[in-house]
Each structure stands twice: as C-alpha cells, then as structure tokens.
Amino acid sequence: MISSSPPSRRPTALLSTRIQCAQADCQHDNPADQSLCERCGRPLTYRYLWVVGQSEGVNPAHVSPSGRYRAVSPRVWLDTQPAAAPDLPQPWPEEALPYFHLFPHRLHVPVLFGFGWHGGQRLMLLENGPIDGAGKLLPAIAPSFAAASPTRQVYWLWQILDLWAPLRDYGVAASLLMPDNLRVEGWRVRLRELIPDRLHPGGQPSLADLAACWLGWLGALQIQVADSVRSLCEQMQQPIADTPEGLRAIALQLNDLLLQQSTQLALKLAVAGGTTAGPQRAHNEDACYPPAQHSAETSLTWLQSPPDLLSGLGIVCDGIGGHAGGEVASQMAVRSLVMQLRALLYEVAEETTVLSPDVVMQQLEAIARVVNNLIASQNDSQQRQSRQRMGTTLTLALHLPQRINGGTAQELYLLNVGDSRAYWITPERCQLLTLDDDLAGREVRLSRATHAEARKYPNAGALTQAVGIHEGDRLYPTVQRFMIDEDGVLLLCTDGLSDHGWVEALGPEVTQLLFNDQLTPQQAVQTWLEHANQRNGHDNASVVVMRCRVTAQAPKLFDPTVFDPTVFDPTMTERAIATAMPQPAPDADVELSQASRALLFDNTLDAPTPAKPRPKGDRWITVLLLGITLLTLGAAGVQIWRQMHTRQTPRLWPSAPVDQPATRDPMDSINTQP
Fold this sequence. Notes:
Blueprint: E1 2-3, E2 18-20, E3 29-31, E4 46-52, E5 69-73, E6 76-79, H1 97-101, E7 111-118, E8 121-127, H2 141-144, H3 150-169, E9 182-185, E10 188-191, H4 207-215, H5 223-236, H6 244-262, E11 266-276, E12 286-289, E13 295-299, E14 313-320, H7 326-350, H8 357-381, E15 391-392, E16 394-400, E17 403-404, E18 407-408, E19 411-417, E20 421-425, E21 430-432, H9 439-445, H10 451-454, E22 478-483, E23 488-493, H11 495-498, H12 502-515, H13 521-536, E24 541-551, H14 574-580, H15 594-602, H16 616-631, H17 635-644
Antiparallel strand pairs: 1-4, 2-3, 4-6, 4-8, 5-6, 7-8, 9-10, 11-13, 11-24, 12-14, 14-15, 14-16, 16-19, 17-18, 19-22, 20-21, 20-23, 23-24
Helix pairs in contact: 3-6, 4-5, 5-6, 7-8, 7-14, 7-15, 12-13, 16-17
Domain PPM-type phosphatase: 293-548
Keywords: Membrane, Transmembrane, Transmembrane helix
Protein name: Serine/threonine-protein phosphatase
C-alpha cells in the first residue's frame, strides 16, 4: 500500500520516525507526521509492505536489520527510504515468479517489492497489498459479507472467479481458497499474498474446492442471491466445471446474477471534461470528451428518457508527435470514438439479449483498432517514419446500460492504451484502475526487474504502445469491466495531472467537496486542471470527471415518444466515421495550428461519406419496437409491429466473439515519450 493519508491516521509508533522524500531530485528526510515534503512540497510516499515469512515477534518499536524499515505490526513494515533501491537476489526465488507474471492483475494482486532479513531468514516484501493508510490490514472477506448489499456480495464472488484462471495457470490458485487471505476494500477484492498450490492440503486446487469455500459463506449471503449461489456451487463441484467450457458456463451464470442484482440500483451520472495547454506549452496536444463547453447529467437507465446516448462516456487522449501531429491524432481519436460508440450504444438499445463482458470487450478492442488504423493510415500517407509518426494515448470510460428484466445493469467499461489513467475516488480512498503501458511495466512482466527497481530506469516512462503508431493488429488495448454499486467519482486524466502522485494526495479531498455540493462536476474539472498547472505545469493536461450517485429508488417509466436514437449507417467507411462526427470544440485557450487543421479536416482525408437518411417509417418502427420491448404491449400491438416491420436493419456489432488477436510481442516498444 502506498499512502498519502493525513498524519492523524498514521500509527503513533511511527510519529518519531523520519521519512525520506521519494523524489529523486529531493530525498529530504521529513518527520513521519507530514503529508508533503518540507523541501519540495510534493506528496510523501508511505509505502507499507506485507512481509511473507516467519516474521512474528518483531517489535514495532525497533528497526529491522536493514535499517530502512519500521515494523508497524509483526507482518506490516513501513519503508522509510522509498527513494532507495530494495535488496534483490539473483536469480529470483521460485516463489517470486508468480508476482511478476500476474503484475497486470495488480488491482487485486500484490506486487513484489524486494527482500529483507530478520533473525537470519530472508523475507519477501510485498507492496500494493491490502493495507490502509494507517498501516492496518483491510477487513477479511468472510466477516464483511453480512453488511454487504446483494450486488456487492455477487460482485466479490465474480472477481474471485475471474481471478481463478490466471492464478491457476501460474500455480497459485490456492490463494483464493484461504478466506483470511482475501481482503476487501469497498467493492474491490484484494489478495494479501500469493500461496503456491503445492501448499494446498488437497493437492491441485479445483473449482470444487472453491465451491466448498463459497458454501461456507452461504449463511451470510442475502436471501436474494443465496439460492442462486448454492446452485452455482453445485455445478462447480461437477468434474466438467474444471474444463474451459465448464468454467465459462459458470462465469456466464454468475455474470447474469450480477447484472440482475445491479438493476436494483438507480444510477445518476454527471460528466464533465476539460483540457489545458499548461503554463509551459504553446500548443495543446491533448483532447477529451465531453469538451469543456458541454457536460451531461442524467439518470442512465432505459426506464427513463436519456437525453443523449453518450451521457455515460468519458475520453482523454494525450497526443504524440508534436503540435502538427499529436494534436491531430488526439482530436481524430476522439471524433472517431464518439461516432463509433454512439453506434454501439444504439445497437445495445435495440438488443434483446444480454451481451457478456468478453463480447463487449472484443467490440471495444475492435473500435480502438479502427481508430488506430485511421491514424496509422494518416501517418503512411504523409510518409511519417519512426519518431515522426503521430499517435495518442487513450483512456475511455463507458457506462453500458443493458436492459435486463425491465431494469438497467450498472456496468462500466474502461479501455486504455498508453499512460493516461483512470481512478475511482471516494472521500475515503483513491484507487488507480489502469496500468500504464510503459517500459517499467514491461520489465516487470518479463521478470527482469521489480516495479520499484524499474521505476528508477532513465526511460521508465517510455511508452510501449500508443494508438496510431503501428497497424491495428499490433495494438493490444486493456479493457476492464466494473460494476458501479457505490457513490464515487471516476477520474480520467493525462499525465499532466497524474505525475508526482497528486491525484492520490488530493483525490479524496476534491471528491468530498463534490459530494457535499460545494463543487459542480465542471468546477471539479477546473480544480483539477488548476492543480495540474500549479503543482506540475510541465505538460498539457486533460481531465474528465464522472460523478456517480447510486440509490435503490425505482426510476420513472420510460416514455418512448421522446426517444430519438441517433441514425447510423453501417455501410460507412473508417474514414467516413472519422470525419462525419462534428469535432468537439477545443478549449478557449487552445487553437489548432493551420497545418493541424489542414491535416484534421481537409487535405489528406477522403471526403466523408454522407450517412444514408433513414426513412421516417423506419424511425417509427424502431420507436414502436422499443415500446413493445420495454412496456410489454399486448398481442395486438405485437401483431401490428410485425405487419409494419418490413425489413431487417443490418447489425454492425456481431454478438459472436471475434477472432483472438495475435500474441503480443513484449519486446516491441515504441520508446516514445508523450
């Protein structure tokens, strides 16, 4: 756990300790009752480490033998020299390897930091563990079930099942079978450590073992979900459950249960965005959606009348390639994404079956590759080579309101490429949801260095991929699905804000003002941009704030007569998609250069293919179809609809999974700084 918590939350035993500033250009020793460095004014890093090994009996009042650690409890140590490199053995011990391979799952899995010594025994030290800002372990999952809502209970189980396959592949599935090893932080399930399968008393763990664990929690489950979970556990105990097909079937059933429970929650979103060139840059190569001139606040449920299909969309892009390239790439990406996602949401609105998470993820990956190929084609047409090629980072958040049994599921999908980030922030905590595509992360996945070690490389922040640099078959976006079951703020931002840990340090405070109605979402965006300019200031910055309020109140009925879905022609080409969408207006303090405007609008793109207007009769057929689906009209209405519906509209988004992409080449790095 890396914390910037208020001094009052820190253990009293540490108040006499000195903590070193983690910034390489500072490293000043500070009292442990400070949140900001006395010299440079940047946030101090309080890195709490979970100790794996026989460390019982360590006195919290004494420093460990290496001198840099202070024991908060027998198995929780504080690193007082976060700028120093940890002790690392070579070669890596066998028990350390799964931590490298599972680094992409760091939202749930701890990260290897280094090694320490106590009593002549080598101890493994883990960062990013389930430890709060006061150095205390987060609650165990078993006693937390009783106070959790039905949606959260199923969401915890879904996360555990989602981790089963990757942990099993690396021989540590036993980590999910020991309840004390499973900790919860609000909605999120976290592992205290990875436990090798060879230590499991029953031999190789199976889904039957996981089912036995879940059955032990059955008495604490809410009545709405207990019977369904019991039925799933019975299926997990069958031999076929351990096959890929069996695991997928169980996952789909658990997902259906999760979506059904989430329909009991009414979600109200308020989304705002903005971007700034910053005090040191003449041009702004960032772009975002919604732009500063537009913000949306709506109850996103198909039982109400949404004013805009894109009311649950946020995008930030950080362009690469200079003001005649980077700003073009980021603007082109936003425009193309808006057009394609509007079409996707229109299709979801008409869909009568539930799309599984893997299908939605594949659709979003395909959309990102379309954007990638548009920019790559622009590079090729201008004969841009190597570092001259323009590209962009991309982080987008999409609320996908799927209709289930008359309600709306509260799913949130995140897609990211590059080092722009997404955070989930409440007044109590700040959680980083995305993983940067940079050289430091690649070195960890290849087991070449710990993340603490790789972060100190001179080119640690060099991007390993970005949108538009290469062809689409070499782009591997990370797509994640989350459920919104609590009040919070989703913050998307480029590195002009996220550098130096300011989001983690200030996030809960700004979010508290937002939920106290002392700030509107647009004012929160401006607050973050001011922090970016004043506390960093070295780069452009873009921010999207998505405020989420969750209630259990039943929403009003949907009025189909006021729903006018956006018309989309599925025959449009990729270039037409990129150019047909009106460009979000840039911030007032940023003007595109004449060369960039020529690149973006006129000279090199083919003329946009006009969208084929849909006949008015078809529009009323669509309205009637929605009315029938949502209001369950009688047989007479169904018969009328069948008589009027004379043709089928071609589907742009197939419901079948697309082919899997080729295996990523981990050595492929663009080595380009945004």
